[in-house]
């Protein structure tokens, strides 16, 4: 049966970061939350059944991933992306942010330079700063419609700052780019030439729109695999973020040992047993659910595009090629960033992610999570358009 993504599920009172902690984060409690990147949909039924089966067993002792676990992960990436990987490349971690922090510590020293491409997922910057690394920004170029990479600036800053680690976001959050083969190869060739290690965050790999294909960076050239740490997780794909499970692929044995050493030093041991169970169930049985979800997200995106074009043309949709997070250009509204945030909170009664949190180039933008029932999305767009009448 087709999953019912139209079902509105009450998440209030479930310790949901998205719904239950507005006051603690300085927001009014009556806002419609469309910010943090989890979905308002139930996970696939097969995942729920697998978790129920484990819960009924009643023993939740220390657990390790077994061969079935590794096989399910390998099969998913082989089938979805034609990427053949080995079990010993996979390092299980509690999440992508944890893994990024671990990579920063494992592959750089205090004072070393770490490069990111802002506007980008904000923990990238935090991972560098919190570990006393120098943050170097290769700001993405925006032409008023789409984003591209300034490759000359990219290489120049690597050389000038002796960059040791580059954190790639692919597909890109929040601007929605799915990088092309030529773009990724050009980035990779520069990093190989300059001796830069790449952490490629590919957590949104399963979400691309028609005409766009996600390419695994490490699989494009053998030499890329030798400098790359690939971050993946079923959490975005199947709405499992709270189960804290991710799979980090590292072909280069020396890099893998350094990464594992940092994980050990952090005190992290066995993975969350429920995360292990959910990952296997999702990758073995969740593909049809994902296909249905992608169709639903495409419908939601089509609705937003049409609605903004007709009812709120002052707000431009930066056309996404991937992810379920859309990036809205609000510069024509003529508001500074403080007033723009106040507009969405106080007028439109929405909790969105203000663009400034994503760093350089984020001013004048906002990020909206469209992984919700269409009725909620319709209400949110209506609240925006009505509020614009009184701007």
Task: Kindly describe this structure.
It is a single chain. The protein has 391 residues and is of the alpha/beta class. The chain has two domains: 17-44 and 287-389, Alpha-Beta Complex (Aspartate Aminotransferase, domain 1); 48-285, Type I PLP-dependent aspartate aminotransferase-like (Major domain) (Aspartate Aminotransferase, domain 2), CATH 3.40.640. Helices cover 42% and strands 14% of the residues. The protein has 14 helices and 15 strands. The protein has helices at residues 17-20, 45-57, 67-81, 96-107, 123-130, 151-161, 181-194, 222-225, 234-238, 253-265, 273-285, 287-311, 337-347, 374-389; strands spanning 32-33, 90-93, 113-116, 134-137, 141-142, 147-148, 163-169, 197-201, 228-232, 246-249, 316-318, 325-329, 350-351, 353-354, 365-369. The strands form four sheets. It has a seven-stranded mixed sheet, sandwiched between helices. A four-stranded antiparallel sheet has the order 11-12-15-14. Helix 2 runs antiparallel to helix 11 (273-285), helix 3 packs across helix 11 and helix 12 (287-311) packs parallel to helix 14. The longest helix has 25 residues, at 287-311. The radius of gyration is 21 Å and the shape is globular. The model has no long low-confidence stretch (mean pLDDT 98).
């Amino acid at each position: 049966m087709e999953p019912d993504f139209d079902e509105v599920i009450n998440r209030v009172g479930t310790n949901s970061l998205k719904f239950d902690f507005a006051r603690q984060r300085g927001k009014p409690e009556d806002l419609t939350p469309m910010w943090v990147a989890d979905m308002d949909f139930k996970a696939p039924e097969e995942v729920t059944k697998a978790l129920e089966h484990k819960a009924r067993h009643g023993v939740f002792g220390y657990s390790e991933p077994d061969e079935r676990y590794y096989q399910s992960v390998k099969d998913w990436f082989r089938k979805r992306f034609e990427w053949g990987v080995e079990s010993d490349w996979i390092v299980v971690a509690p999440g992508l942010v944890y893994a990024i922090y671990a990579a920063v510590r494992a592959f750089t020293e205090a004072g070393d330079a770490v490069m990111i491409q802002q506007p980008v997922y904000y923990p990238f910057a935090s991972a560098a700063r919190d570990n006393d690394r120098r943050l170097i920004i290769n700001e993405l170029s925006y032409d008023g419609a789409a984003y591209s990479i300034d490759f000359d600036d990219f290489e120049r800053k690597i050389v000038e700052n002796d960059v040791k680690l580059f954190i790639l976001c692919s597909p890109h959050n929040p601007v929605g780019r799915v990088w092309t083969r030529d773009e990724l190869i050009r980035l990779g060739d520069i990093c190989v030439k300059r001796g830069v290690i790449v952490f490629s965050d590919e957590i949104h790999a399963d979400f691309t729109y028609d005409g766009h294909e996600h390419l695994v960076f490490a699989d494009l050239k053998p030499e890329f695999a030798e400098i790359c740490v690939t971050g993946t997780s079923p959490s975005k794909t199947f709405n499992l973020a709270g189960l804290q499970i991710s799979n980090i692929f590292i072909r280069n044995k020396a890099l893998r040992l350094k990464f594992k050493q940092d994980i050990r030093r952090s005190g992290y041991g066995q993975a969350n047993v429920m995360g292990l169970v959910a990952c296997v169930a999702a990758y073995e049985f969740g593909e049809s659910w994902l296909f249905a979800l992608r169709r639903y997200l495409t419908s939601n995106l089509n609705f937003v595009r049409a609605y903004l074009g007709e009812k709120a043309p002052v707000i431009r949709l930066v056309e996404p090629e991937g992810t379920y997070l859309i990036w809205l250009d609000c510069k024509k509204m003529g508001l500074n960033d403080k007033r723009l945030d106040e507009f969405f909170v106080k007028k439109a009664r929405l909790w969105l992610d203000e663009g400034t949190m994503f760093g350089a180039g984020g001013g004048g933008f906002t990020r909206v999570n469209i992984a919700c029932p269409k009725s909620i999305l319709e209400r949110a767009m209506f609240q925006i358009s009505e509020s614009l009448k009184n701007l």
